[in-house]
Each structure stands twice: as structure tokens, then as C-alpha cells.
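Retro notes, structure queue

What went well: the backlog is down to a handful. What didn't: a couple of records were mislabeled last round, so from now on we paste the full input next to the output in the thread. Example, using Protein N-acetyltransferase, RimJ/RimL family from Actinokineospora terrae:
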Amino acid sequence: MPLPAFPIKTRRLVLRRYAADDLDALHAVQSREDVTRYLYWGPRTREEVEKALAERIGLTALSVDGDRVVLAVELAETGVLVGDLTLFLVSRENRTAEIGYIFHPDHAGHGYATEAAAELVRIAFDHLDMHRVVARLDAANTASSRLLERLGMRKEAHFVRNEYVRGRWADEAVYAMLASEWESAKTTEPFVRGLPGDA
Ligand SMILES: CC(C)(COP(=O)(O)OP(=O)(O)OC[C@H]1O[C@@H](n2cnc3c(N)ncnc32)[C@H](O)[C@@H]1OP(=O)(O)O)[C@@H](O)C(=O)NCCC(=O)NCCS
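Corresponding output:
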């Protein structure tokens, strides 16, 4: 499944492949308790981040179910790395992909994650010809739910205490969007259209 050429520029951001010199910036994100609160893994040591970065650099294709690629997201103006995006190939047969995103709290509240995720959804539908894009999250992760709603994604499921994550039972929410819905989101959702002003 051929990915678009990177880097990709959006209104305020650049989506690009990870490189070895991103270690400090990735560690600054992944070592934080507030970043990992709703993730499957807890704050990572520098050695763990080094491994995670090497893995990310090695993920270059979406070929078979379960493959994923991770893109670094930086501010176009300054080159500062603000977060990353993950695109998983859930099912080639059903043309279904899953999106994920992790951003540094210092850069929260400007719509950067929404802008980047909108571009990832665009890649999934317009470039990779996906039929359905999903997102799975801890239902308590309200910042993430709001992001998905800004994209025009629909909440499809709320599973109650179905996953045992790092010592507690967590609820899981599932959001989804179909290619047909994406066509209308492109014209009706202000954050997808990229209209809101800079924060
Ligand atoms: C989930 C996560 C990316 C959301 O971050 P965020 O800063 O809320 O998202 P954005 O960068 O899109 O910013 C949106 C906020 O900025 C505001 N905003 C300001 N200018 C904006 C603009 N031009 N466009 C969109 N939103 C804008 C929005 O109103 C919104 O605020 P609100 O949620 O209080 O209403 C972030 O909390 C995170 O990385 N968490 C840790 C990792 C994680 O849990 N990932 C998700 C796993 S499922």
C-alpha cells in the first residue's frame, strides 16, 4: 500500500518520518506521566525511548494487517517536534485503518493535534483509499474524544471495564468514520477544512 511522499506540509505543521536525532524530543514526550495516563504503557526511560525510536524509524510500510507507520509532527515555523501520529492497517480486506496521536502538553490547546490527525485521516481516505477509519481510546480520555469529534468522527461503542490496563479496569471507546462521511466532513467540519484561526 504506497504511502504518500513525506514530508507533508499542513497549514501550521510538517508531518515527516522520524530520524535518529529526534531522541531528546521523543523522550521529552514519552517520559511524562500526564502523556501516558491513558496509554497502554507508562512513562519510558531514555533507553526505552531509544528502542521505541529505532522501531519507529524501521516502520516504513503498510503491507499486511497489523503494520503501522509513525510520523513525527513538527511546527512548520520553528521545526520544534510537538507530537506524533500513528496509522495502523487494521484490515486490508476491509480497507480499515486506525489512527493514534500523542502530543507534548506544552503544545496543547492550539489545535495542532487536530490539524495533524485531520491530515492523517485525509491520507487514509484520499491516498490509501480506506473504507473506514477508527480510533480506540480509554473512554476517560476526554481530550482525545473531543479531538475525534472535531474531526467529525462518530462514537460507535463504549465498552465498560473491558480492558485491564496498568492495574485498573478501563472503559474503551471506539470512534469511526466511513469514506462517505469523510467526503462531507471535508466540507462541513471547520477543523477539517482548516478554517479556524491560529490560537
Ligand atoms: C489527545 C491529545 C492529542 C489532545 O490534545 P489537545 O491539545 O487537546 O488537541 P489539539 O492540539 O487539537 O487542541 C485542541 C484544543 O485547542 C483548542 N484550539 C485552539 N485553537 C484551535 C484550532 N485552530 N484548531 C483546533 N482546536 C483549537 C480547541 O478548542 C481544543 O481545546 P478543548 O479541547 O479545551 O476544547 C493530547 O491530550 C495528548 O497527546 N494526550 C496524551 C496522549 C494520548 O492520550 N493520546 C490519545 C490516545 S487515544
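Agreed that this is the format going forward. Reviewer comment attached to the example: The first helix runs from residue 23 to 30.
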